[in-house]
């Protein structure tokens, strides 16, 4: 039974194996197809007809079909290249220049050869505190917004305090959250009188507000491209106040912008979404624009300290190396002037200090900028007393 089936299956070998003529025709067809792909024009001129199992096949359309395939491949290649560069993100942070100050607020330059030129070249650390920083714009305000929760104002205050501390040119004292420090001192067993006694005065209080804050979106749609640009803008205004008199002796404003631009080509690429970090970058840029101006203004005032004790020939003063003093620095010993109330303005006017001696820094002591001191020797003048002050 098996042998019978085998004879039936292989009784017509021509249906399984190709004859020599059929095999040569197959090879000819394959070669003509390859020639058409390699040299479409030459193959088109030499195109003709071939026989395959009694049927005629024309190769005249091979060049046209190949050209269509090549055009399709070229179009796909162009789309692939465009897709690879279809979108891009461009970020930039711009610190805009502040408004030009009025001539009345500009500090006159010291004349050449004055005694303060050397000291102003190296600024010692001043004690500052941020008393208030609020958001005076309508941004972020709503019907259901808590007016006491000033998120933007608190953020601006924290950014300013952080930048002042990281600059290494200020001693920053806390005033905004002073009530929290007082509550913590009570847990430590301190009385309100002790807490108040331990507070340190500052050279200047910083009051500020966010006066401009907002965003804008611009876009452009062309034939093949679509772009979107998000811009956040902020402007802050600060003033420095003398805590002894309440007088505003410096005021300045500065602005900053942060932008994000995205573009798509032929509808390909990532879509631009709302980026809330632009608000933070714009606010940071606006505040950073003011730091140098604050430092320069505070440097106009002489660095002042007090005498802790007099031990023989050594005079111990507050402040040391971490605040910017160096061994060999010369300090003036001054007798404070008297305070007289002005009948014109109502402010207390301090008469000029009188110099009575000079000290030289010889060494330092202490382990922190708020608890360190300097040991000085008397260079000239009278022996200092604890009610005298020293200036650099």
Descriptive terms for the model:
392 residues, Rossmann fold, Thrombin, subunit H, 3 domains, 6-stranded mixed beta sheet, 34% strand
Give a brief rundown of this model.
With 392 residues, the chain is an alpha+beta fold. It is built from 10 helices and 16 strands.
Question: What does this protein structure show overall?
Answer:
The protein is of the alpha+beta class and 392 residues long. It folds into three domains: 17-84, no CATH class; 87-99 and 118-299, Rossmann fold, CATH 3.40.50; 304-391, Thrombin, subunit H (Beta Barrel). Helices cover 29% and strands 34% of the residues. It has a six-stranded mixed β-sheet with strand order 3-8-7-6-4-5. β6 (204-221) and β7 form a beta hairpin. α6 (151-166) packs across α9 (277-288). The longest helix has 23 residues, at 62-84.
Tell me, briefly, the overall form.
elongated
The top-level CATH class of the largest domain is Alpha Beta
Q: Number of helix segments?
A: 10
Q: Give the DSSP E fraction (strand runs of 2 or more residues).
A: 25-35%
Low-confidence stretches: 1-20, 37-47, 59-64, 97-120
In round numbers, the mean pLDDT is 75
The name of the CATH topology of the largest domain is Rossmann fold
> How many domains make up the 3D coordinates?
3
Residue share in helices?
25-40%
| String of helices and strands | HHHEEHEHEHEHHEEEHHEEEEEEEE
The helix-and-strand class reads: alpha+beta
CATH architecture of the largest domain: 3-Layer(aba) Sandwich
Largest sheet: 6 strands, mixed
Gap from first CA to last CA:
122 Å
Could you give the order of strands across the largest sheet? 3-8-7-6-4-5
């Amino acid at each position: 039974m098996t042998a019978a089936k085998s004879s039936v299956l292989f009784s017509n070998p021509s249906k399984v194996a190709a004859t020599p003529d059929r095999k040569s025709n197959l090879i000819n067809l394959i070669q003509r197809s390859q020639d058409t792909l390699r040299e479409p024009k030459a193959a088109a001129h030499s195109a003709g007809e071939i026989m395959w199992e009694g049927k005629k096949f024309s190769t005249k359309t091979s060049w046209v079909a190949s050209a269509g395939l090549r055009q399709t491949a070229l179009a796909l290649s162009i789309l692939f290249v465009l897709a690879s560069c279809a979108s891009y993100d461009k970020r930039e942070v711009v610190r805009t220049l502040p408004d030009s100050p009025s001539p009345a607020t500009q500090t006159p330059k010291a004349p050449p050869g004055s005694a303060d030129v050397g000291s102003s070249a190296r600024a010692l650390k001043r004690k500052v505190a941020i008393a208030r920083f609020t958001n005076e714009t309508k941004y972020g305000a709503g019907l259901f917004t808590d007016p006491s929760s000033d998120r933007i104002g608190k953020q601006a205050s924290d950014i300013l305090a952080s930048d002042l501390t990281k600059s290494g040119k200020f001693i920053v004292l806390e005033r905004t959250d002073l009530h929290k420090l007082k509550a913590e001192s009570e847990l430590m067993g301190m009385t309100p009188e002790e807490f108040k006694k331990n507070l340190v005065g500052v050279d200047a209080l910083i009051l500020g507000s966010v006066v401009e804050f907002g965003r804008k979106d611009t876009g452009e749609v062309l034939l093949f491209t679509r772009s979107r640009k998000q811009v956040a803008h902020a402007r802050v205004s600060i003033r420095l106040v003398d805590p002894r008199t309440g007088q505003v002796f410096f005021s300045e404003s500065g602005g900053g912008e942060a932008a994000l631009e995205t573009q798509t080509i032929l509808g390909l690429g990532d879509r631009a979404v709302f980026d809330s970090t632009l608000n933070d970058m714009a606010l940071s840029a606006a505040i950073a624009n003011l730091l140098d101006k604050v430092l320069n203004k505070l440097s106009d005032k002489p660095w002042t300290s007090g005498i802790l004790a007099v031990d023989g020939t050594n005079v111990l003063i507050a402040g040391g190396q971490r605040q910017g003093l160096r061994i060999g620095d010369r300090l003036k010993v001054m007798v404070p002037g008297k305070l007289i109330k002005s009948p014109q303005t109502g402010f207390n006017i301090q008469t000029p200090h009188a110099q009575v001696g000079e000290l030289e820094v010889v060494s330092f002591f202490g382990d922190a900028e708020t608890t360190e001191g300097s040991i000085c020797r008397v260079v000239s003048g009278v022996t200092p007393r604890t009610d005298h002050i020293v200036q650099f």
